[in-house]
Write a structure and sequence with these properties.
alpha/beta, 8-stranded mixed beta barrel, 5-stranded mixed β-sheet, 16 strands
């Protein structure tokens, strides 16, 4: 509006014409005023001069002011425009930066799960039936134990190193992401099917190689789940990733390094999840029981203890093998509560036997790697021993050799604390984990228990028999007694006795049996005799067999069998 008024005034012909003429007219009128014959006439003329000046001169000034204001307004408008563009540019840059930060994993710099799914969705939207694509999900083996052993700082450095290793072995057009914790994902595009397996193997080898982290060398394995994308299938990104994760879970459950997704795996996964639910409810429903297998002195035949072994009677599947449900309990973490229940139940049974003056045996209970990782494991075990009022020296905890192969400082500390409670510690499944002699010499252990794999090799004249003899000699060199498990034949027993193996356990004497059967064995006063290695027709009839025990047992059971 002001601009239009200013232009109208500036275009007014009268004021354009009155520029200089108006000034001269004012001068002439002023002279006339001075020459006026009377004062009132001078005043009249002066008023006239003033009026003419206001009419002719002031509008010109107003026009100049309006013009200068218009210029100032234009300059202000330009400044505002430039500032607005700068702000918009900064907003765009900030938006790009925020989007980039939201899409990336802060630790590794790789894409996160959300961004990976968006990238996968975009690839799936490309309707190219000739394109070959695959998704790989990689999980680091035993990374939770690595984290607990070395701390979060070293664990984070390991994750960064793994991310760099993955990115280095894949092509620029492939997408690598950190999906969750120690789980990584890779999207492979335009990959010939015959090369897919090679890429997976390359990824696994790269991830499983030695790492230099925190001035030390570490080896960490990898488990892979793979799904190839069928262009004819209409699948969303979450469905594709879920299939790769199903393959990964199957690989972990079956102890395989790589599994490629198949439709049948979905049903198996659903069955496994139901199985996990049943496993979680088994403790509450009293579906678990303990069976006890005697441990016998090889030379005298005396029972010196029993091993408590878990049994599960499933409501629809019947008796489930421990080889099936124990690994699942380990994987789900339920083994912590199950192991504590087994220890409590075994200690309660031991107290019952002792108070009834029936048996006084060393009670062996397995302790899993997950239990060792539990920060409260020592306190919980101490509470059980105190509450059940058992002698801690009559309790033996068996741990697998694989737990002590690596220099696991945290596990070693737990073992020392357990030993301080007064309980005994045994290395179970010895020979399968390749623990070094120097490593064994540092452990607070009381005995070695040799895996049945090497007992089965007796008589084969192969490397297993050689390793067995060397293991017994090594244990004796460390001052440790040896228990051989899985002894089933007289020939195996003879070999073990010849090599001074102190204790034996196996079906040659008894399978795992309910606690009442252990008592009946004791009352029969025939359980602890050595089985005959040769029988003839002239041998006397041993009498009725005791269930679960060989009928050819001779030696009577001692009244006190607890060996301190």
């Amino acid at each position: 509006m002001l601009q239009r008024v200013g232009h109208a005034i500036a275009d007014w012909t009268l004021f354009r014409a009155a520029g200089r003429a108006g000034v001269w007219l004012a001068i002439v009128l002023a002279i006339l005023v001075l020459a006026a014959p009377s004062r009132w006439g001078a005043v009249s003329l002066g008023s006239l001069v003033l009026l003419v000046s206001l009419i002719l001169v002031l509008p010109r000034a107003a026009v100049r002011r309006l013009t200068s204001s218009e210029t100032a307004l234009g300059e202000l408008h330009e400044v505002h425009r430039r500032q607005t563009e700068a702000v918009q540019h900064e907003r765009r840059e900030l938006s790009v930066w925020v989007a980039d930060q939201v899409a990336k994993d802060r630790l590794t710099g790789l894409l996160n799960r959300t961004a990976f799914l968006e990238r996968l969705d975009a690839v799936l939207a490309q309707a190219d039936e000739s394109a070959s694509r695959a998704v790989i999900v990689v999980d680091l083996a035993q990374f939770a134990a690595f984290n607990e052993a070395h701390g979060p700082t070293v664990a984070d450095e390991m994750l960064v190193a793994v991310a760099a290793r993955l990115a280095s072995v894949l092509r620029p057009e492939d997408t690598v992401a950190r999906l969750d914790g120690d789980v990584f994902g890779a999207l492979l595009q335009n990959l010939p099917r015959e090369l897919a397996q090679q890429v997976v193997e390359r990824v696994q080898v790269a991830v499983g190689s030695t790492y230099s982290v925190a001035a030390s060398q570490y080896d960490i394995g990898a488990v892979c789940g793979v799904v190839t994308i069928n262009p004819l299938e209409s699948l969303a990104a979450p469905d594709v990733l879920r299939r790769a994760e199903i393959a990964l879970q199957n690989a972990k459950a079956t102890a395989r390094s790589v599994v490629v997704f198949e439709p049948r795996l979905e049903q198996e996964t659903r069955d496994r999840l139901r199985f996990y639910d049943d496993l979680a409810r088994a403790l509450d429903s009293s579906a678990f029981t303990l069976a006890y297998q005697p441990v016998v002195h090889a030379a005298s035949g005396e029972v010196i203890g029993v091993e408590a072994l878990m049994r599960w009677s499933h409501p629809t599947r019947g008796n489930v093998s421990p080889a099936e449900f124990i690994p699942m309990a380990e994987a789900s973490g339920q083994i912590v509560d199950m192991g504590l229940w087994a220890l409590r139940t075994a200690c309660r049974q031991q107290r019952h036997w002792r108070r009834a003056n029936e048996l006084d045996l060393v009670m062996a209970v397995n302790l899993s790697a997950r239990q060792i990782s539990d920060p409260n494991v020592v306190d919980r075990i101490a509470e059980v021993i105190t509450r059940e009022t058992v002698d801690p020296r009559a309790v033996k905890l068996e741990i697998t050799e694989s737990l002590i192969v690596e220099d696991n400082a945290a596990a070693l500390e737990v073992l020392h604390r357990l030993r301080s409670l007064g309980v005994r510690l045994s290395i179970d499944d010895f020979g399968t984990g390749y623990a070094s002699l120097s490593r064994l010499s540092k452990l607070p252990i009381d005995e070695l228990k040799i895996d049945r794999y090497f007992i089965d090799g007796i008589g084969s004249e192969g490397p297993r028999e050689t390793i067995l003899a060397a293991s017994i000699g090594m244990a004796h060199g460390l001052g440790l007694p040896v228990v051989a498990e899985g002894v089933e034949t007289p020939e195996q027993l003879g070999y073990l006795r010849a090599h001074d193996c102190e204790y034996i356990q196996g079906f040659l004497f008894s399978p795992p049996v309910p606690p009442d059967d252990i008592v009946r064995f004791a009352r029969s006063r025939t359980l602890m005799a050595m089985p005959r290695q040769h029988t003839t027709d002239a041998d006397p009839d041993p009498g009725p067999a005791v269930p679960g025990v060989m009928p050819s047992l001779e030696r009577p059971l001692p009244r006190r069998l607890f060996v301190r």
